């Protein structure tokens, strides 16, 4: 859904010029730079030109820069690999997002994200000629200025620059609230009250620096300035202010202030998903906290390091950090801290599929939350207990936990909690094949996410609406929902969300028998899963690549993909996934007339399916084994199947022969 913003006459003129320029550049490479510092205005403009051009037979595509390695060439190559139509003489336009969110400060690396981007652009003229379509690159004013200075060859090669300006009323509403992944790129996007406060702080700093550049008060003023920018999600500006705090703290040997500032720098980068850089700052905060014996800061920093490790899917490392935090919280009798850390330990156990352990941690957290009457956190823990019940396929139990969570979220007017719980109730209804009810819950969730401008939540709910449409075989509708989810995931730099949605777009293409397109989507998902160390995602995508290869009758390739999927599922203890992959590997072996291997693989599938007591999967396995035994009768194999099913061989033989 696009936030509609009424266009000024100036912006309408620029938009008209952009549309005409794109139309004149169809089926040839032209680079158009669109400059806009206002997120909602930018979304409106993109929606306007995509709709107009689509009506004129020009297909719009979007892609995003990876801030870890921001390269226009790589972004376009990846997009083309997933959309082979772009290689043919198709009328298309590609919009590139993400440049405005690149940081100018270098953080803990040799080059800033912006510097990497400018360097990648400077000598790309020849390599970009492979693309035969116009490209619109959206930039903030600050990034456009840096690009002109640091990539002059690229700047001189551009085909046009289009500048869009936000009016006063738009600026006042720009960033309330700001979701993770967005940041204000310049001070013109701050609200009036914040702007006045910030201007006052900057004036005080200027006056004090004029009077006494060594004044200890500068530390406090820069810290307040950084906090003010951070509250407005002006992340780049906050980083600059906090860097000044560090300089002042070092001059005056204020070690506690250094530690606090490193912690705040980590918080900003955590908001922006720059996980590797986050870790560096938190480690520096922790070293000083240990040096100054600040136990509370040690505990909260260990906790935050746990969150970073969790985001990087380093679950054992996350568990170790949380345990260190918990030990200090018990020592200092920090009951609220103990509840929060037990909750996070439960999430880690859940992600490692240690469900009994997860429940124990959640119950410890819940006991403390009830003791301290922390209603909001109780709702969150009931929510997580619902998710564990879901994983154990105890759907009615899950629904009961979610209803408890929802009741508290409504009682405390927690709109985000309500949205999240409606979403999970939708998941439960979906699992129970109650698709109409699922859609109703998802719509309730989506309405709140739009109301609160929760972009990540919107992406997740669009994704699930796509899943429901897919289950109902409404593939074009599913694809439309996934595209909405993907656009937001690119906009917010949600790499895990991008991978998951590329995967589902692959599933839709597979259902439509567009196998090459499916493979391209899966490859794109896999690249991100490897980048983010998402082992479960890798396993699922290797499995689907095996399915595609199987459909294309590339059986040895399919076997190799399935083996990669199986190895990863064994590593992550994904028993359901193992059964599914053993089943598919059995089918490949059977197709290749390797009957002994097929027998062994089908038995492995049956063994795990019986262990998990999954009736749906058992029905599929039993039906397949009946067919297999009819085609390849073997008394020894039949005896092994009988033993697993706890039936007499003669009784089973009668069933097979029936």
UniProtKB/TrEMBL annotation:
* SMART domains linked to this entry: TPR
Q: Looking at the UniProt record for this protein, which Gene Ontology cellular component terms does it annotate, in alphabetical order?
A: cell cortex
Alphabetical UniProt keywords: Cytoplasm, Repeat, TPR repeat
Q: Name one GO molecular function term.
A: GDP-dissociation inhibitor activity
Q: Which domain of life is it from?
A: Bacteria
Q: Which Gene3D superfamilies would you find in this protein's record?
A: Tetratricopeptide repeat domain
One protein family per Pfam: TPR_7
Instruction: Provide the primary localization.
Output: cytoplasm
> Which positions make up the signal peptide?
none
- State its location(s): Cytoplasm
**Name assigned to this protein:** Photosystem I assembly protein Ycf3
Outline the TPR repeats, range by range.
219-252, 299-332, 339-372, 379-412, 419-452, 459-492, 499-532, 539-572
